[in-house]
Amino acid sequence: MKLLNTLFLSVSVAILDTLYKGRHFQRFWVLEEIARAPYFAFISVLHLRESLGLRGQVHIDLMKEHFAQTLNETEHLEEMERREGNKYWIDRFFARHLVLFYYWVNVIYYMVDPINAYDLSEKIEWHAADTYSKYLEIDPQDEKISAIMQDEIHHAQELSQAIRLIT
Ligand SMILES: [Fe+2]
Ligand SMILES: [Fe+2]
To answer: Quick one: which of 64, 21, 23, 66 has its CA closest to 41?
Structure first.
């Protein structure tokens, strides 16, 4: 599955590279719109498990972590909206349809194989950090993007820790 995750990420990145060449903030906005979906999905599945009485300390720690991540990703999204990343109808249309699909993919993936669902999201977070670091080569003074890049690194590390928690 880890190989499939890498393949899925490579194909998605190639598509985004083509569609968003030279359109940094539109690209970042689409990424941030999609980035929240796995965390919403993880929380949804954890809620379901809790409703079925499957609760424990690890469960509570994961709920806290994923809830914080959703809020943090929403802050990133709002920053990209301030930079007009969602200005064009076509980008909103693309991202909002994609995110619906991606949310349900993550719900099912996390239900049946949480370790690999986390692995996919960790890879995506590392990719997000890499995307922002490339932008910082063009504009090293952009402190907000630098802070967002650090957040993405933290998310990737937290997902790595989450894998260790449930393994
Ligand atoms: Fe983000
Ligand atoms: Fe992130």
So the answer is: 66
Domain that holds residue 58: 2-166
How close is the Cα of 159 to the center of ligand 2, in Å? 10
Residues 29, 86: contact at Cβ < 8 Å?
yes
Q: How far is the CA of 75 from the centre of ligand 2 (A)?
A: 10
Q: If you measure from the C-alpha of residue 112 to the centroid of ligand 2, how many angstroms do you get, rounded to a whole number?
A: 23
Spatial separation of the C-alpha atoms in residues 72 and 74, rounded to whole Å: 5
Query: How far does residue 8's CA lie from ligand 2's centre (Å)?
Result: 18
Please tell me the distance between residue 96's alpha carbon and the centre of ligand 2 in angstroms.
18
- Dist. CA 23 → ligand 1 center (Å): 17
What ligand is nearest to the CA atom of residue 159? 2
Domain count, the chain: 1
Output the pTM of the full model.
0.94
Q: Which two tokens stand for residue 23?
A: 């359109």
* pLDDT by position in tens, the chain (length 167): 888 888 888 888 888 888 898 899 999 999 999 999 999 999 999 999 999 999 899 999 999 999 999 999 999 999 999 999 999 999 999 999 999 999 999 999 999 999 999 999 999 999 999 999 999 999 999 999 999 999 999 999 999 999 999 99
